[in-house]
TrEMBL record, chains A, B, C, D:
Keywords annotated in UniProt: Ion channel, Ion transport, Membrane, Potassium, Potassium channel, Potassium transport, Transmembrane, Transmembrane helix, Transport
Organism lineage string: Bacteria, Pseudomonadati, Pseudomonadota, Alphaproteobacteria, Rhodospirillales
Organism: Paramagnetospirillum marisnigri
Transmembrane segments: 20-39, 59-78, 90-110, 153-173, 185-201, 213-234
CDD domains (UniProt xref): CAP_ED
Protein name: Potassium transporter Kef
Length: 391, 391, 391, 391
C-alpha cells in the first residue's frame, strides 16, 4: 500500500503507469481550477450555471486537497538518515513545493469556513497555478541564471534606471507647458518606461518639435539599452540548459560499458557532444533507407533491429546506427524500441570529430559494423576512415 | 513521355530547363491565386471587373489542378522497391505535400459543384499558399528546431504564462475600481499579453499611480522574459541551418579526389569549414587583379582559367584560387564557369588554419600553384608557408 | 583619525564594517534625495506636509555635503608620488566622480543662497543619481563597449538613418494628401522613428492602401535593422564583462600555490574557466549529501570541513570539493566559511577537460582526495581517471 | 596640380591634411543639404527667410557640383592598365558611388533649368544623403551579409508571410461581423503585420473574446518568429565585421618582422587575435603606473618610450607593453606616438594563450623585456612563464 501510494506521485524518467495518469489528472485539475478562479472575477460569466461552476470548483479542490494529503503522508514514508517521519513531513511542508501545495488548498478552505472576503479566494485560487512549477524546471533554472548573472543584470538595470530618469527629465522640460502627460517628472517617467521598453501605448506622446526630437533619440537608445538584460538572461538561460544537459549525460555515460575505456577528459568531452533521448515501447528509431545522421548508445531498455540479414535484439550497453555514419549510406536496418529506452545520440559531425581519430575506439565500432554488414551482405568501403588491423 | 513529365516536376540542384519554367509558372499561379482569394473578401473590390477576376481565378485553378494531376500521375512512375504504382500514388496522396496539393484544388471544386458556402472557398483559396512550402526548407527546419528545443521552449512558455497570470492579477486589484479594461482578471490578461509582448496597443492602459508603477515593472520584466523563447528559436534555427549545410557539404567532399587522402576526422573538420556554392554557365568566379580571399574546389562542372600564361580548363576534382592565398597577392587569372558548377569554397583564414599545417596536403596545393605560377611567370615567395621538398 | 576617515569611504572586495554602513546610508540618501527631487515637480504632492519634505530634503543634502567634504579631505591623505595634498585634491575634484559629487551639492547650495530659479534645483537634484555610478561598473563598462564597437555601431546608425529618411520620404508621397501626420517629410520622420523602433504609439498611422503596404515593409525591415545596434551592444557588453572577470581571476590565480606549477598559457586557460566567488562568515558552501558539480580553491580566508572522519580547517591556497568530481558521488562533507573568503570555483566539466589530462596536476588532487577519503573511510573508485602512481 | 587634386579626395588610413578638411566640409554640406530638402516639404517653415534658405541651398549645391566635377576629372588621372582617361571616367560615372554623386546634382540642375515639378527636387535633394555611403562601410557590409545569409533570410521571410496570412484569416473570421478593422482578410492583414512586428499601433484591435484569444497567441508567436530574421542579420553582420577585421590584420601582420618567423597557420591564428588600432601624433598610448592589459606591435610610425631608465624611440617592427604582461605589474613606462601610427594590439589573455607556449617567440619577447627592465632597474620575476635559456 505504502509503495503503491509512493508510486502514485513518483517522478524521474520512467515513472509507473499510475503516476503518469495521476500527474496528468492533477495538471488538468490545476489548470482548470486556476482558469475558473480567473473567470470567476468576471461578473455574471456563468450566467445561470453559477451553481454548477461552484460545484465543479469544489470537486477540483477536493482533488487538490487529496493530493496535498497524499504528499504529506508519503513524505513520512522515506525519511532521510536519522530523521523521524514527522520531521520528514515537516521538511516537506516547509519546502517550496510544500508551500505551493499548502497555498493551493488551505487558505481557501479556511476562507470558506470563516466566510472571509472573496478577494482572498481569487488570489489563492490563481496561485494554484504555482503547483505546476513542480513539473517544469523553468523556475529553478531561471533562479540559477538570475543568481549567476546578477552582476551584469544589476549593471544593466542601473543603466536602464539612469536612462529612464534622464529621458523623463529632458522630456519634462520640453513638453511640460503644453502636454498634460508631462506635467511632472514622475508623469514623464511613465512615458519614459513605456517608450524605453518599446511598448508605445500612445496614451502619452510628445507633441512639440523638441519633444519629438528628444523622443526619437530616447526610442533608439532604449532599443539598444533595454536589449542588454534580455540578451544576458537569454544567453544565460540557454547556457544553463546546456549545463544541465551535460551533467545528466555525464552521469549516464558511466553506465555504458563502451565508454568505460575512455579517460576522464574524453568522457567530459563526449558528454558535452551526446544528447539524451527517450523512446517509448514500439517507437521506431530508424527506418531502412532513411538518411542516417547519427548513431545511438543504449543506456537502458531494449531495441529490435530488423535488417536484410535477419532480426536481433540489442540491450543496454550496445550501440547501433554506426554503419550509415561509417559508410555514408542510407540506414541498412529498421530499429524499433521493444521496451522504454534511454538513449544517448551522437551526431555524424561529432562522431567523426571525436570517435574516428581514436584508434582503439574506432576498432570496436568498426568490428561491430563489419560483422553486422557481413550479416546483411554489404560490402564495407570505410568511408574515409583509416585502415584498421583485421580482427 | 514519362521521363519528360517526371522532368517537369524534377527537383534537386540542377533540374532540367522545363522544370525551372514549370516551377516558376506554378509559384506565380499559387501566389496570384492566394492573393485573389484574400482580396475577394473585400466586397466590391473588383468593381465591374468581377467577371474577369472570376474567370482568371478559374484559369489559375486549372493550372493547380493540372499540377496535382501531374504529381499524382508521376508518383506512380517510380515506385519504391516492392511497391505497386497505386501504392506509390497513395503514399504521395497521404504525404504532407500531397495533402497541400489536394487542399489547393479538390475542396474548391467540390464546393463549386455543390454550391457550398463561400467561406470555404475563401479558406481553401488562402490555404493554397501552403503549396509553396515544397520550395522552402523553412517549415521543415522550424519543425526540427521546435522538436529539438522543446524542453527550453516549454520552460520559457511556462515562465511567460506565470508572468501573464501574476501581472494580470496584480493589475486587476490595482485598477479594477476605476478602469473598465481591468474589471476582471481575464480582462486584465489581455492587457498583460499586450504589454508583456511589448505590443502596447494602448486600448487598455493603467491609469492609477499604483497601476502605472506595477505596469512599469511588468513592462521591463516582460522585455526580459519574452526574449527567452525568441532567442532559443533564433539560435536553434541558425544552428540547424548550419547543420544542414554540414551534412550536404560532407557528402560532396567525398566526390573531390583532393580530399580522398584526408582521414575521417579531418573530413568532418573541413566539411564544417567549406561553404557550398553554385555557378551558372558563363558566371565569372574571379577576376584578375581582384583581392583574393578564398579558394575553390570543383565538385561538378567545368571552369575556364584565363591568365597571363594562357587559357586552360579545369573540371570536377580540380581546385583554383590557391595562388592568391599562398602569395597574399591579387588574383593572377580570371575564372569563368563554362557549364553549371557546384563548388566548395574555402576561406583564407580557414585555408591557413587547416591546410597549411598538413604537409602532405600543402605539398599538393603548393606544387600545383608553383607549376601554374611558372606558366604565368610569377616568382613564388611562399607567403610564410613552411618550405616544401622540391618535387 | 585619518585612517578611520579613509576607511569610511574605502572600496575593494572586503571594506571595513564602517565603510559598509556608510555606503549603505549614502546610497539610501542618494536614492531618496533623487526621488524627492522628482516628486517635487508634481505640484501639491506633499499636501500639508510640504514643510516636512523641505526639511527632510535639507537633511539629506547635509549628508551629501558631508560626503563631498569627506572625499575632498581624504583625497589629500594619500597623494601619488611627487604630488602635494592640494594637487591630489584637485585631481579628485576634476575626476568624473569628483564632478558628480560636486554637482550633487554645490549648485543647489549656490541656488538657495542666490534665490535662483527652481528648475536648476530640479535638474541638480535629479543629477544626484549619478553619484551612484561609483558603485556600479555599468557606466564604465558601457563606455568601453561603445568605444570598442564604435565602427559597427556607427555603421548600423548610418543604416538606421538611411532607412528613416527613405521610409519617411516614401510615406510622405503616399499619404500627404489625406493624412495630416504626413504633411511634410519631417512630420513623416516622426512616424518612421516610432515605427522602425517598433514603438508604434499609434498617434500617426498610415490610412491609404499604398501607405499601409509601404508601412508593412518598413515595419518588417525596421525589426531587422534596428536589432543590429542592440545585438552589437549586447554581445559587446557580455564579452566585456567576461574579459573583466578574466583579468580579476588571472591576478588571483597567482595567489594560489596550487596553480604555481602551471605554465603561463595554462594559467591563461584556467583563468578563463574559473569563476570568482565570495563568501561571508558562516556561509555554508556545500552540504554533505548534495550533488557536487564544482570544486573550490581558497584565495583568502578560512573554511571548516566537517565530514564523517572529523572536522578540519582549510585556509588560503587549499582546495576542497574535489572528491565529488573524481568519484561522481554526492558531497562527502559539509563546508562552512569561518571568515570572509574569496574563492575560485571550477566546474565539473572544466575540471575534467583541464585538470584530468595533466598528470602532474591530477596527482596532487588525487593524493589529497585519497588521504581525505581514507579519513572518511570511503573506497576510492577513480571515476574514469587514469591510474596514478602510488605515493 | 594633378597630385594636389587627387590628394583632395584621397581615402585610406592616413589621407593628407587637405583631404581631411575637404571630406569634413563635404559631409557637412551633404547633411545640411539633405536636411534643407527635408525641411523644405514643411510649408512656410522658413517664414520670411525663404530667400536666404534658397540661396544657401544653391551654395551647397555648388559645393556638391564641384565635388562631382573634381571626382570626374581625377578619375581620368590614374586609369587602369590599357585604359584611356575617358574610359576610366566612364567607369567612375557608372560605378555605384558615381551614380550617387550624379544623382546629387544633375537631376536638380536639370529640373531647375526646365522648371520641372517640385517633387523631383525634393526626392533628389533627399537622395543626396546616399553620397555619405562612400564614408561608411555599412551599406556594403549589409549587402554582403544579405547575400551570405540569403537562404535563411528567405526561409524566415516565408515563415513570416505564412504567419501573417494565417493570423489574418483567423482574425477575419473571428471579428468580421463586429469590427470594421477586420471586414476583409486584406484589412486584417494590416493588423497582422502591426501585431507580428510588435508595433501595436492600436488603430485596429480585436474586440471579441475569441479575437483577443487568437490575438494573444499571434502576439506571442510573432515575438518568436519575427526574431528569426533580426537574429540572422545581426549575427551575420558581426561575423562579417570580424571577417573584414581579420583580412586587414592578416595583411598587416606580414609587415611586422617579429611575425615573420611564424608559420602560415600561426599567422592565421594570431591575425584573428590581433586588433588593429590607429594613433595620431602626440597620442599617449600608455601611462606609467596604469594597469597593463595588452601589448602593441608597431606596423608603421614611431613612438617615444619614457621610463625610469631614460627615453628611447621605437619604430615599425618593434613592440612594447610586454613587461606588464609578463610580470603582471603596472606599466613601467609612458609611451607616446610621435607620428601617426598603425598598431596591432594583443590582449593579455591572447598573449598567454598564443605567445607564451611558443619557446622561440617567447625567447625574443623575454630577452627584449629583460634588457628593458635592466635599464629601468626592475627585477624580473617571470610571472609563471617557463624558464628561458640565458642569452
Amino acid at each position: 500500500m505504502r509503495a503503491w501510494l509512493q508510486g502514485l506521485i513518483a517522478e524521474g524518467p520512467f515513472p509507473p503507469r499510475r503516476a503518469v495518469f495521476f500527474r496528468s489528472a492533477l495538471v488538468v485539475c490545476i489548470v482548470v481550477s486556476t482558469a475558473i478562479a480567473i473567470l470567476d472575477t468576471s461578473e455574471g460569466i456563468w450566467g445561470q450555471h453559477e451553481e454548477l461552476a461552484r460545484d465543479f470548483s469544489a470537486l477540483l479542490l477536493l482533488v487538490l486537497t487529496a493530493d496535498y494529503g497524499l504528499r504529506l503522508l508519503t513524505a513520512g514514508f522515506s525519511p532521510q538518515e536519522g530523521e523521524t517521519a514527522l520531521k520528514a513531513r515537516l521538511r516537506y511542508t516547509l519546502s517550496l513545493y510544500g508551500i505551493f501545495d499548502f497555498m493551493a488548498v488551505v487558505p481557501f478552505l479556511v476562507g470558506e469556513a470563516f466566510d472571509l472576503p472573496r478577494d482572498g479566494a481569487t488570489i489563492f485560487g490563481i496561485l494554484r497555478f504555482l503547483k505546476l512549477a513542480r513539473y517544469s524546471p523553468a523556475l529553478e533554472t531561471l533562479g540559477v541564471v538570475v543568481l549567476n548573472e546578477l552582476r551584469p543584470l544589476l549593471a544593466s538595470l542601473f543603466i536602464m534606471l539612469l536612462m529612464a530618469i534622464a529621458s523623463s527629465t529632458l522630456l519634462y522640460f520640453a513638453e511640460r507647458s503644453v502636454n498634460p502627460g508631462f506635467k511632472s517628472v514622475s508623469d514623464a517617467m511613465w512615458w519614459s518606461i513605456v517608450t524605453l521598453s518599446t511598448l508605445g501605448y500612445g496614451d502619452v506622446v510628445p507633441t512639440t518639435v523638441l519633444g519629438k526630437l528628444l523622443g526619437s533619440v530616447v526610442a533608439v537608445l532604449g532599443l539598444c539599452m533595454f536589449a542588454l538584460p534580455a540578451s544576458i538572461l537569454a544567453s544565460g538561460f540557454s547556457e544553463e540548459m546546456r549545463r544541465q544537459n551535460f551533467v545528466s549525460t555525464w552521469h549516464l555515460v558511466a553506465k555504458v560499458p563502451f565508454f568505460a575505456r575512455l579517460q576522464a577528459n574524453q568522457i567530459a568531452e563526449i558528454a558535452s557532444l551526446l544528447k539524451l533521448s527517450r523512446a517509448i515501447k514500439g517507437e521506431v528509431l530508424m527506418r531502412e533507407g532513411d538518411t542516417g545522421e547519427c548513431m545511438y548508445f543504449i543506456v537502458s531498455g531494449q531495441v529490435e533491429v530488423k535488417g536484410k540479414g535477419g532480426t536481433f535484439v540489442l540491450k543496454n550497453g550496445d550501440f547501433f546506427g554506426e554503419i550509415a555514419l561509417i559508410e555514408r549510406c542510407p540506414r541498412t536496418a529498421t530499429v524499433k524500441a521493444i521496451s522504454r529506452c534511454q538513449l544517448l545520440v551522437l551526431d555524424a559531425r561529432d562522431f567523426h570529430k571525436f570517435v574516428a581519430h581514436d584508434h582503439a575506439l574506432l576498432e570496436v565500432i568498426w568490428e561491430t559494423a563489419r560483422s553486422r554488414m557481413a550479416m546483411d551482405n554489404i560490402q564495407p568501403s570505410g568511408g574515409g576512415l583509416p585502415p584498421v588491423p583485421k580482427a
